[in-house]
Amino acid sequence: MLCVLRPAALLRRTLVVVHRWLGVALSLVFLLWFLSGIVMMYWTFPEVGAADRLARAPVLDPARVNLPAWDAAARFLPDEPVHVLLTSFDGRPVYRVELPRGQAMVYADDGSEQRTVDAAMVDRAAAAWTGLAARDARKASVEDVDQWTVAGGLRSIRPLYKYSWQDGQQVYVDGRTAAVVQYTTTASRTWAYLGAIPHWLYFTPLRQHQPEWFATVVWSSAVGTVAALIGLVLVAWMYSPRKRYRYNGVPTGIPYRGWKRWHAIAGILFGVVTTTWTFSGMLSMGPFPLVNRAAGWITGASPGETGGPEVDLDEALLGNRVPLSAYAGRTPADALRAVAPFEAREVELTAFAGEPFYLATNAAGDTRLVPVAGAPRTALETAAIMRIVRDAAGPALAELRVIDSYDAYYRDRRRTQPLPVVYARLDDGVDSRYYIDPRTGRVIGRYDTRSWASRWLYQGLHSLDFPWLYARRPLWDIVVIVLMLGGTTVCLTSLVLAWRVLSRKVHALIRSPFEPPDDDLAPEERA
What we know:
Helices cover 43% and strands 17% of the residues. It has helices spanning 2-40, 50-56, 69-74, 119-130, 186-194, 196-199, 204-207, 210-238, 258-283, 289-299, 313-318, 332-338, 382-393, 452-463, 467-470, 475-511, and strands spanning 83-89, 92-99, 102-107, 138-141, 160-164, 170-174, 180-184, 245-247, 250-252, 346-352, 355-361, 367-371, 397-403, 421-426, 433-437, 442-447. Strand 2 (92-99) and strand 3 form a beta hairpin.
């Protein structure tokens, strides 16, 4: 009998020691992750996105748009533009022209080409963003990565200029393009310090060293996942359904007292979500090829492969390429006049089924479609969209309908994504799903089984964005916050125990590393 028990007892004691010291190493990091995760439900790291640029862009004045788009692009012939957008730059209407071999900007008021950026232009960009005078700001050249430029492409933008006003607003402007690339306020910086920075370990001394930061996050998450799994194994192993232990004279199934008892109870209640959150957080850095291969095995699809014909719905919805001459029946200025009360900030030259359209967008992101001939409209006919999808997909089309609510793959907790949309599912070996916005005639969401790991193992486990839950806010908020607080309890009790280990047990563990302390064990009731 002893030969059977001794290896099991040794294994259990070894797991206790490993779990304890992993907790000593990572309990503080875990505690920061859970507390900052609650903040990140509502506030994230400051950034400047397309919606921010649109909201601060000036209203396009048709009286100032003197040059038609085809005249602006004519200087670049024989290259036919791939994309043309009428917007603003330095307070003037400008065409942003995308060519097969680069990009260019041509002012729509006088036809001159924008080539150089000077200091005065950079000052005006910063002032226009905040509505405050540039002379009232403290201007500094950003030579090294700072706390608000550690992410993404901001690390490599130079020259970069930072403008700071007394009210707390800070604007970073690209000295090459005069584009605002980062914007923070006192509030956004405060919430970032409480949320995104500790959650993503975006501490400047670490984050400015990309490889080291990546390795730290990945290995911390991986080791933390192992620690949480060991904790689950131990609490299941040592738990006694028959309540053979005693606590304050009462039978109990948990063989601990004091802080260890609270840690064990928290682990029983919240250990699983602690493990899945740590694991899914690790996947946010990938997902890793191994996980993708496992997802392919689960879903029956191989990443990077399809089992049916390739279908390009984006191209099908646009139709044949439309030359700029096709827009001659209505100039961009006329299109602006047609939607004058709409206060468009941008006008894009686009098409649907080969028919030229102007797509006007206002500060809120709402759109209007202006055909070359005819009255403006708010949306395209869904029947026309569905007809194009049927023709493009052919026999691969498995499902086609209009949906007016979010589902498992087209989702938005803040409910800003457009509804209704046309939903199309293809039987192409990877279960491709497309979501098409009738307001623009474009695919705005897609999913296939090659993204299974990212959708469910990362986003599903980490954000709990399951349709039955996130569609019922504030139920989602309540559930996530309760689970977050439970994980915080696991980490807080672990932190207390880690402090006790470091302050009272280090010398004893060095002498006998496989002898667990027994001062917190509840007495066992023996027959």
